[in-house]
Amino acid sequence: MLDVSIQGRLGTFDLDIAFQAGNGVTALFGPSGAGKSSVLRAIAGLWRPSGGWIRIGERVLFDHGQGVDMPVARRRMGVVFQDPLLFPHMSVEKNLAYGFCGDRVLWDHIVSVLDLQALLSRMPRHLSGGEMQRVSLARALVSDPSVLLLDEPLTGLDEGRRNHLLPFLERLRDESTVPIIYVSHHREEIVRLADLVFVVESGTVSEELTPTELQKRAALGVRTESAMPHVEKGA
Amino acid sequence: MTGAAVTAIVFLSLQVALLATLISLPLAVVVAKLLSRPALPGKAFLSAVVHLPLVLPPVVTGYFLLLAFGRNGFIGSWLDVLGLGISFSWVGAALAAGVMAFPLFVRPIRLAFEAQDDRMNEIAETLGASRWKRFSTIALPLAWPGIVAGSVLAFAKALGEFGATITFVSNIPGETQTLSLAIYSLLQTPSGDRAALTLIGISVAISFGAIFLSEWVTGRLERRRNG
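^ inputs. structure came back:
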């Protein structure tokens, strides 16, 4: 169980967010600039909140009160950004091997689920956007992370590539035991992938919904954050 | 001037420029990496120190080297005791050339580090990589084109160094008389023009060759990376 309760200053507004995520896919849904990505960065240790805590079960990653701030490299967080950020001078196989935990069974499973066998010897420059993102996902997963943090992984892709990658994410959700925190402002992705949705607005959780509830609201025309104009707030 | 004398001058110059480049390389990479960090404390001061040889009269830089590494200098006197004195030697000439070339060495490497996406470093960190692993496996290989470009610039600058070298190690034929110093001496000698022209031609050819090689290697590295 991932337990997050953090505070901090983000550009022009304060972040004060609390949620708990279990197994499966937990989505943080809301407009751009609401603070969702900063929450992921805080969990990964790439941004330091000014207060609160982040725990996974008994493991304390961050606790401002106790002065705990575990180094990024020891947190075991798998991170995938909107850009795949593959190491351009390494083949796909070497990218995967970079943080590989040593478990060959896990390697074979992830390579199979994401259908990467034929790509292993290629260099990143020879991959399509969707293929790069699959490699980025695999690179994070073969490091055997405690949690997989996905920050708008489909946003940079065109519709065709998004539709190509979504089934892979569904397979990951169904076949991987790693809890996933999924940040997006696209309702359709969330409805299709998430088990639980936290609606984030201006740095705080405004609602907790099931994907079905989110979909119903959209069908009824109820205003949710993704229907709002996207306001960049420097998050 | 005999062919053997010309060969000796060219060989000594290449030796001095090569040593200057090699001894500066590790320090240039470290300093470039430090200067590429946006929030480095004392960054302006470090940058000023690195760029000082570019703006100071070369004679002044040579004089500072003499104060530090001369026989009575605060470092040189100790080196002399250990039998490692470098004043009035070709190693001293390499030191002077290395110091003068240093700002030109650092700049392309710094730009190569600054051009890197910091999030790539963050991803490596989330994958458990230590600071050294991130530097040696991500930052350094991606900075190769800058390192090659800096090395060639430094080599070409070291090859042509004059003011600091003549101040620090003098102009001793066979020991510290590099191409630039030999050309200067020949131009001061009646009927030395012809020999000077030969050395000038060789200087131009070496410098052109070094820059051509740098462009070729950098281009290959870029193509290998970008497809």
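Chain B is about 80% helix and 0% strand. Residues 27 and 112 of chain B are 16 Å apart (CA to CA).
thumbs up if we can close this ticket
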